[in-house]
Protein 1
Amino acid sequence: MEALERRACVTGVGQSQVGRRLMRDPLELTLDACLAAIEDAGLTRDDIDGLSTYPGGVDLSPGFSGAGVIQVQDALRLELDWFTGGVEMSGQLGSVINACMAVATGLARHVLCFRSIWESTAQGKSGRGGFGLGSVDESRRRVGEEMQWTIPFRSYSPANWIGMFAQRHFHEFGTTREQMAQIPLNARKNAQVNPKAIYRDPLTLHEYLAARLISTPFCLYDCDVPVDGATAVIVSHVDAAKDCRKPPLHVEAVGSALRGRPSWYLFDDLTTMAMRDAGKMLWERTDLKPADVDVAELYDGFSFLTMAWLEALGFCGKGESGSFIEGGRRIARDGELPLNTDGGQLSAGRLHGYGFLHEACVQLWGEGGERQVAGDPTVAVAAAGGGTQGGCLLLTRG
Amino acid sequence: MLDKPFRVLPELTETNRHFWQGGQEGELRFPRCQRCRTWIHPPTPVCPECLGKDLAVEAVSGRATVLTFTLNHQQWVPSPDHPYAIAIVELEEQEGLRLTTNVVHCAAEDVRIGMPVQVVFEQYEDVWLPLFEPAGAV
């Protein structure tokens, strides 16, 4: 079987201003990121013949989408041969995997992929709310579809839903909060040398353990930080990449599987989620091994998700993520598997999946500045989502 | 006795009424395949096991086990009863027949994985919510 994704590569990345309550037009942030990515690739907008995004122009919750395909196509007057945008795909990076397929099959040569979010401004002073609540004053409001099976039980948030998976992992494998803390502590250390990160003050284990609980076993620092910001990447056909400015980052393999039940409470194994199958699939499509990976950028909407991705991608055994990250040395920037080197969503901000791919590319191009991983990394993995749907990409340079 | 906490209620339809109103007769009900006897949740028009379409609503025992839980501390909707326990329970009739629910009638801190529980219904308007209490509770 030929892994067709190898005909695709990443040729440029771009990111807007990222911050809390920027009060800026989300379309402007989106276009800032898109134009930066086009320029980074050494292309012009006339070269862009494909457009791909997640979740499309649908605000599922306040600020969840800064722009969709239609707005960006029109704003930049793009002449497209192929486009797609939506929420039912292999997580946020499913939109990049789709773009790989589009260039591999000849539907497009250079696909502009983007994810734009403005939750911080949209949520306003009230902060992050629960799902399904709307205004609580509307006491006659009712929920339907999938949400009817969770919301009436006062289970309003992914913090509740994912917290239950973490709790089961703790129960089966003896995982501890002290171990899980290494995900946010490591992220914060990396954020300290990322000038664009939201939270850059030092964070200690003592402060982590003293923080207020959100939903056990998660405390405040296990939850990512809503921001405003947009990220874009250019996916090009390998032949078209020769026109680009920078060395292409080859897509060695992707993981896009959905095999278990896509549910927050019906997945067969309550110690992992959809990432289990996406991670497994990725290694079925390449001769490279987890030990070949120089940098890992793994989704951390909640700290436990990163642990589940570490297991899903085979960086440690099933149930062993707690001991793998214990003490934090292995996952530090100078450890054996540098992890979430820009601070992730926990400290750098919830760019919702695309931040991980952006950072993987930055590291492979050696553009990380003070946070650049030593040793000239050439293999990186980026993973996003992973709860009910997830996707991952393995990238190589040279 | 504390007032019942605020809850967003489910929208009743022809496909979910058996579930949300079964508690009126003290029954927890699910569609069941009449060919291969698989219990089905959430409701779907085709049996996910044998793909048969001969489904009928039946009642389960209401006995279940806590597979996992979380104690919610965040005041999504302010109320004095935080933290409260949200759990995933599995009905004894079938592996994988699960509900998200609340464990009630015990201290939230006493909820444990593996704990046997039984259904207890709490009525809100025209909805009977299946909550679970420790098995053997009076």
Note: Residues 36 and 46 of chain B are 12 Å apart (CA to CA).
Protein 2
Amino acid sequence: MLRIDELRVNYGRVPALHGISLHVDEGEAVTLVGPNGAGKTTTLSAIFGLVAPAGGTILFEGESLVGASPEKILRRGLALVPEGRHIFGTLSVGENLQLGTTARKDRHEADDDMKRVFERFPVLESYYDRTAGTLSGGEQQQLAIARALLSRPRLLLLDEPSLGLAPVVIDVVFDALEELRKEGVTILLVEQNAARAVEFADRAYILRTGRVAHSGTRDEILRMEDFETAYLGV
Amino acid sequence: MALFLQHVIDAITVGSQVALYALGIALIFGIMGLINFAHGELIMVGAYTIILVGHPPWPVMVIATIVMAIVLALAMERIAFRPLRGANPATLLIASFALSFGLQNLAILIEGSAPKGTSVSPWLSESVQIGSLSIPKLDLVTLGVTLVLLTALGLFLQRTRMGVQMRAAAEDFRMARILGVKANTVIATAFGISGLLAGVGAYLLVAQTGEVAPDLGSNPILYAFVATVLGGMGSLRGAVLGGYVFGAIFVALQAYLPLELRSYRDAFAFAAVIVMLLIRPQGLIVARSTVTRV
């Protein structure tokens, strides 16, 4: 579904990605883990057209995403929940959700999806008219995920969805991701919370300083004796 | 007392006009971080349209003025500002100055630098007598039109899908695009609305002064810029409030400055604004969102 080959990204003259290759198959949940500065967020940003690659290819369903604008990439069937959630704090919860349906033409089905979102995240229905900036971190994360789902993505990219959340709330987020995966949404998850992410995923890539250091299925990665070492990069 | 009320009415009229211009500037700044000094040339071109169309029925004249200003605003965006999107604010600012001077000189080339007189509508220059107060109909029309436009813009931003997209883009442009909001559509819409506001402003301005000149947009835009800074850069409510506060300062100085100082009215007005900004540097209303560039 998604295939990245030898992707290189520079920030100014500083290389952030030195040619990473990875793929995500339809229906899979794949995670990218690694320490800070490993290039996880940069990888997602490159996929979504937020940074321009210096080289390499990004193919989604066989077609290149390189050079396309974020709004076009969303219309191809991808969605991104960025790091830090990026809720529109001055808008209401309802308006934030409505923005998730921006690219959709099937208004009635979008309304049905909205109801399904409320079943999954009841808190969003009760706070529908509230200013989104007043929600707690966990509620904002639920809103960010719900908003991304309303575009009905076939591939969902998530950047650090558990960052800064209480353990109980992290469970809520991962439960939601688990359900999505059962419904057939393909997921590419970036996490610092490596143990949790690998546990959740079918496969994992461990990034270190802009390179893929290891990759494998969940069991392979979990069996790696030096998994923690590899992850922490010490 | 009557004189004071007369000043209040003047202040509201001047304030309404400045608010209309300021809103056009604030709208563009909120979305793309550009202070568009060429906004004044939208007013100028709108004003020349009034002369060029001759003497058709007034609705035709109003519509022609507005349409010309909108078309020019959209052309500005497409030709001058779209290629610079994502450039730093200084580059955008200088581009808008260049565009402003370029258009002014183009107008001098075509129409000459001498002001041209015109009368928009004799009806507007009449006054309504209320007690001892004599209120020009133009003042009432200016206030009425401003209130209608402010309400309409408010409803558009609050109630329509495009309005919500524009508010989202003003808060976090990158995130709005990630959700599929089309950058070009949102920015073009903002320019279109700023053109509409400039067109209406042009009509009201010419109705008041009866004169059209290539530099006619310069002063209004300076006032409007000061109003947006005063109100709080990036806040639409701030721009409107700033417009009215500026109108009040302006008229108060005009009315109460000693006669020999009155020709320095603008200097005093800007000094008053500087003092207010020293007390409250962030402006009267702080935009809750920091502007994110495309």
Note: The first strand of chain A starts at residue 2 and ends at 11.
Protein 3
Amino acid sequence: MALLSNTAVLLGKELRTEFRSRELLTTTVVFILIVVVLFSFTFDPTSAESRRFAGSLLWLAFLFAASLMLQPCFLREQNNDTLSALRLSVSDPFAIFVAKLAANTLFLLLTELLMLPVFSILFNVAIFPVFGRLVLVLFLGSLGVSIAGTALSAVSAQARMRELPCRYCCCRYLLPSWLPARK
Amino acid sequence: MTALVFSPTGIRFENIEKRYGGLYALRRVSLEVAAGECVALAGRNGSGKTTLLRIAARLVRPSAGTVNFSDGGGNVNQTAARMGFVAHATMVYDELTAEENLLLFARLQGIAEPAARAEALLRDVGLIERRGSLVRTFSRGMRQRVAIARALLNDPTVLLLDEPATGLDPQGVTWFAETLRRLRDTGRTILMSLHGESEISALATRAIRLDAGLVMADTCSGANLRSILTFADA
């Protein structure tokens, strides 16, 4: 019960701070937009070949975005040592992780939903006929990616040169989520 | 929701050792802080004061040794402690308002009527007019007041204060000394790290000087107590 109530309070805090600062969302949306546009220049969007690889390209872009978005989620708690304040306040520290995980999944899903129409236009891929199933796949993929990314962010927050191992490990541990989702 | 019932709490450090790689921050520190005592920790930078306080707050795990909390009768009771911790960093969110910060931590701690508690504390720390302002717009002293309010949310039985007067103006120091006096007189245990003499150090009933992770002096006598605090500052 305490886990649930603490998670709800912390999730509210995550959403409020992010929607107020828009630090992660803005950076990630701009980044993923650049990646998708660059991909569209690299491949001929009218060819059947490009549509065959569209799923992989889309998830590759999301994977880059996830590595950018997930890595700083625990790092931000170190600015004012707020992680210590949270640890002193919560009855179950797992609530901190679950709240971060839920927030990251939501942010990632939001980024993906914002990017879908752009991707659809640039790659000439119809998404409306499969929109329902696509959202389910995006949700499950985002959840898988967020579980690995949030855990790595928590582990690497105290490390030196944390960006490098986090991104490297992110790509390795995100593969199990990425491979089925790109289909 | 937690009903805030007060029970006096003591702290016992037994052979506490903390190493960071090959560097010793604390070497076999054994201390007993009785329930209701107000202890000033003094010492040069890097002497181990912050590490000792963070170990007491269970934020840092000691390399060796144990920390136990005891109830008023001296019996070990790990759940007796309700801690308030003020650190070097403010431990509050810049992107939230002063009121949102206090509400967040009050809800996490399961405090009954969090809004009323947050409002009372904001009034106490003199920030009621700025309750809706983002903490990032505050001066260092105002942030420190929010940090102190956060530490007092759960009506702590043990207060761990790491240079708590940082950033406070003279009126702020007077207000905080008065608050601490009230808490000390109602039986709260206070362990605080300080530099030099101040209105806050005058509240201490005991002073301990640390040097290179070792307890170098420990006194309850007034004159010695002052010398410990001033020598540490030299």
Note: DSSP finds nine helices and no strands in chain A.
